[in-house]
Amino acid sequence: MSETGTPSQGPRRILLVDCDMFFVQVARLEDPDGAGSQPFLLVGGRSNRGVITSASYEARKFGVRSGMPTRQARVLCPEAVVVPVPRGACVERSRAVRAVLKELSPVVQSASIDEFYLDLSGTERMLKGEGLDETADRIRRVVRQRTEIAVSLGGGTQRVVAKVATRLAKPDGVHVVPPGEEAEFMSRFRLRDLPGIGPAFLGQLKEKGLRTVEDAAAVEVEWLARWFGPGRGAWLWERVRGIDPTEVDARESRKSISSERTFFEDIDDHDELERRILELSGNVGRQLRAKELRARTVTVKIRDHDYKTRQAGSTQPDGVETDRAIFAVAATLLHDLRHRRRTPARLLGVGVSNLVRQVPADQLDLFGGQDARESERDRIVARAVDRIRDRYGSEALRPARVLDRPDR
DNA sequence: TCTGGGGTCCTAGGACCC
DNA sequence: TCTGGGGTCCTAGGACCC
Predict the structure, then answer these.
(1) Residues of A that are catalytic
(2) Model confidence pLDDT, tens digit, residues A339-393
(3) CA-to-C1' distance for A123 and C7, Å?
(4) Is the minimum distance from the CB of A260 to strand B below 7 Å?
């Protein structure tokens, strides 16, 4: 294990593998004659309140960006074809890419569904002196050949450098920054290009007259700390120099699971909201059990008609895993939130966190009973339902109280 | 043209304990 | 008796990412 960690000598060799317009690529592979034949392809929500998840390069020339409301995208690019996100296929393709990367690198960390950090430190001898740029290009070709997915790779001694370099590598290319050139490389960019700087921080930076990485690099750390707080000040001072102590961490540990839905129309009816909470609790519970986890904390999120987002959470001494127990907590939290501000809801979400591993049945009390707690019988029933759904499809068994009415 | 759904991390205040 | 200091957990909100 220690062999694969950062060696005491030599700079780190970090690569970021980033799938090019991932959702569009997958949509094209899944439907080569339909969506695949469309140059102006948009993937995302098609409902009245949807947004674009990913746009083809051709469509981007018209100003379409991910996160943009679909309605707006249609105005900018009227010829565009919009297809829904092929969720299952994306998860499968992502897994396939990761599996190939695991054969090619000792350390692989998934940063998102379409981004993977690799740490190849310590592989110099094994790779017989192959340069990091050559390694990156080899990985790009192998991934393409074995998964059909086009990827771009950025590389360097630091994660932030690898990440920013990916921007220059796209599409379907490679850009590696040699050791020692990190600060100079970073100085070519604007602050808005740095990962971790969003609209809010950007506004604060602009107030101090800072627009480019060069601007910020000229300011002493004491001033950055005074302006933006000690934590953010030190963070910024490091990043603009291409310094990023974050390690590539291959341990996959999920911190939270959630499911949320924006309604076709705002909902004010309490019973209807409760039915939605029941469905969302089921989605979360199923994922929780599939991963053999339990949750100590249940959270409900509500977005009011005016887009104000509120949430309430509750932590139990013991973890829960059944739909019933999750729903019991979530329903109470929903009542609290609705009591504090009673207004039509645009979105509802259920999340779980504080995740712990399931423990064997013989270590549990077999006498659960109170509402928020679950008995071993509850758990056995819930897992049996999951097995039936796995075999016959998710529609095979549905909560009796949920109306069979899809959103769109 | 109003703003999806899945996440992670950080902060700040209060409770509680030693 | 006029009350420190630190650690941990919980909660709510916010920023940010893809």
Answers:
(1) 115
(2) 999 999 999 999 999 999 987 654 555 544 444 567 777 777 777 777 776 666 6
(3) 42
(4) yes
pLDDT tens column, A162-193: 999 999 999 999 999 999 999 999 999 999 99
Q: Is A347 (CB) below 7 Å from strand B?
A: yes
Cα distance between the two ends of chain A: 50
Please report, rounded to whole angstroms, the spatial distance between the CA atom of protein residue A201 and the C1' atom of nucleotide C2.
43
Nucleic acid strand B within 7 Å of A65 CB? no
Bases of chain C with protein Cβ within 7 A: 9-18
Of A244, A180, A200, A192, which Cα lies nearest the Cα of A216?
Answer: A192
All CATH 1.10.150.20 domain ranges of chain A, comma separated, are 185-239
CA angle A158, A163, A168 (to 5 degrees): 120
CATH architecture of A185-239: Orthogonal Bundle (1.10)
In degrees rounded to 5, what are phi and psi of residue A107? -125, 120
Token pair 């911190």: residue:
A255
Note whether A336 and A394 are within 8 A (CB). no
User: Tell me, in Å, how far CA of A244 is from C1' of B11?
Assistant: 22
CATH (one of 2.70.170.10, 3.30.1490.100, 3.10.20.90, 3.40.50.300) for A256-403: 3.30.1490.100
- Tell if A113 CB is < 7 Å from nucleic strand B: no
Q: What is this structure's pTM?
A: 0.88
